[in-house]
Design a protein that fits this description.
The complex is a heterodimer of chains A (345) and B (111). In chain A, strand 2, helix 4 and strand 3 form a beta-alpha-beta unit. Chain A has 345 residues and is an alpha/beta fold. With 111 residues, chain B is mostly helical. Chain B contains five helices and no strands. Helix content of chain B is 71%, strand content 0%. The chains are: A alpha/beta (345), B mainly alpha (111). At the A-B interface, helix 9 of A face helix 4 of B. One iron/sulfur cluster (SF4) binds next to helix 13 of chain A.
Chain lengths: 345, 111
């Protein structure tokens, strides 16, 4: 499977995606939903998480990917841009957590150097590892050890504990490779009791529906993965699929778009709206531009601030900005809420 | 009069039954909501029971609603189809067990 960009698909254009999202007739507007609960304009509450998207290159091409990542994507963060990120982190200890994402972040040739430099700054590091990268090539087989020596928290997508549902969403063979990678992570201590090495899984629905209750699914995943494969992990985060990029394409082609949006809108939860992740996170793109979140990044909606690039980073200007919102934001506020760390309420 | 029975969009209008008899509808919906909460059985288990019953009573609205709900709650296709087989087996068995009544009757009227 190719990325939308490689296929020169209309939806690879972020403006086209916004046109689809913002001009759907009869839909309640997200800003109206925020106004009704006194949360408009939406503003940051604090800076805690510095999320860096180190590139769109990936060994997989999952059907729901909001990054439109894949082996054909060449955009990756340079070492210079990483150095600029490190400078910001050095000056701003309030960013307690650095969340590294991609694509497959490990495919960036400067990834390991970047992790080690962040570690020197004594921050909590999260790597969003797609699991299969660990077994994709010999040069990645030692990733579990590398993660361990840097005390990295590993967060990995696994759509389901059965092969058919996982492979349909992420590609043939992904389930078996993911299980093998999980076993390799367990072998060095990840996900096991008292090791202090956190391995969290991410579940996102394999279709046009919302995630089920996080704690119930966590129990199901834990017992099924342990029984069938001896695999252990710490927590399961449920994430709602955002109606952008390849998932938006699926919704449109399958005729589920209107229904899904309506589902998100009617499940709007004020408590989830208060806890959206853009209120404590900044998201940095591979080229150093600053966004409210990874989703706005993929829609090319830069922060509404005089500062839009890390080279002129200014915390004061950024903390007082209004967060750029749109219809896709209903994805973060439906039901129990959705963020990079799972349900928010 | 409509020319067909059963329309997809009617499922979403289910709540409107209160337009004609609100107190009874309110009672039904609050009871229904209570039935499907976590209790001695989990909401997830109840979803699969509902899916099976939907097939037994052959309600297309319930089949749509609980196919989506059970899948969403984390059942996979094989589990859902097994639930349908359970419903079918009970339906089949329920017909067949009446065969005993038929046999009884035949025996009763036979010389
Ligand atoms: S969802 Fe993750 S693993 Fe899948 S293509 Fe996108 S970035 Fe790669
Ligand atoms: S999509 Fe981004 S900007 Fe919108 S609510 Fe979610 S995190 Fe915030």
């Amino acid at each position: 499977m190719k990325s939308l960009k490689a296929l020169q698909h209309a939806l690879s254009d972020s403006q086209y995606q916004l046109d689809v999202l913002e001009h759907s007739e009869g839909q309640k507007a997200f800003f109206d939903a925020l106004k009704e609960i006194g949360l408009y304009p939406l503003q940051p509450a604090a800076f805690e998480i510095f999320q860096v998207n180190v590139g769109k290159m990936c060994n997989q091409t999952c059907k729901h990917c909001h990054v439109d990542a894949g082996p054909d994507r060449k955009e990756i963060m340079s070492r210079d841009t990483m150095s600029e990120c490190l400078g910001i982190l050095r000056d701003h200890p309030e960013f307690e957590t650095v969340d590294l994402t991609g694509g497959a972040p490990e495919m960036n040739p400067n990834f390991r150097w970047f992790v080690e430099e962040i570690k020197k700054l004594d921050r909590k590091i999260i790597v969003r590892c797609n699991l299969t990268i660990i077994v994709a090539n010999k040069k990645y087989h030692d990733l579990p050890d590398f993660f361990k020596s840097n005390q990295v928290e590993v967060v990995s997508s696994l759509p389901f504990y059965s092969k058919s549902r996982t492979d349909r969403q992420r590609g043939d063979g992904v389930f078996e490779d993911s299980i093998q990678a999980l076993q390799m992570l367990n072998a060095v201590g990840y996900g096991t009791e008292n090791s202090g090495l956190l391995l969290n899984l991410v579940y996102n629905p394999s279709g046009a529906f919302l995630p089920a209750d996080q704690s119930q699914l966590e129990q199901d995943f834990k017992s099924a993965l342990f029984k069938d494969f001896g695999v252990m992990f710490n927590h399961l985060f449920t994430i709602t699929n955002m109606p952008i990029s390849r998932y938006l394409e699926f919704l449109l082609v399958s005729g589920n778009y209107e229904h899904y949006m309506q589902k998100l809108i009617s499940a709007f939860n004020p408590a989830a709206a208060k806890n959206v992740m853009c209120r404590n996170t900044l998201s940095i793109g591979w080229d150093g531009f600053i966004y409210d979140c990874d989703f706005n990044q993929m829609l090319d909606l830069k922060v509404e601030s005089p500062v839009v690039h890390i080279r002129n980073f200014n915390k004061e200007a950024l903390i007082h900005r209004n967060i750029v919102i749109g219809q896709h934001c209903f994805g973060c506020t439906a039901g129990s809420g959705s963020s990079c760390g799972g349900a928010t309420v | 009069m409509s020319q067909h029975y059963y329309f997809n969009e009617d499922l979403a209008k289910f709540g409107n039954i209160g337009d004609f008899q609100k107190p009874l509808a309110d009672k039904f919906f609050s009871w229904y909501g209570e039935v499907f909460k976590d209790g001695a059985l989990s909401a997830k288990e109840k979803s699969l029971i509902a899916l099976a019953v939907a097939h037994a009573v052959q309600c297309p609205y319930c089949i749509d609603a609980y196919s989506a709900d059970a899948f969403e709650k984390g059942f996979d296709e094989a589990q859902m189809m097994e639930a349908v087989h359970v419903a079918a087996a009970i339906r089949g068995g329920a017909s067949l067990v009446h065969g005993v009544q038929m046999m009884n009757k035949v025996n009763e009227i036979s010389m």
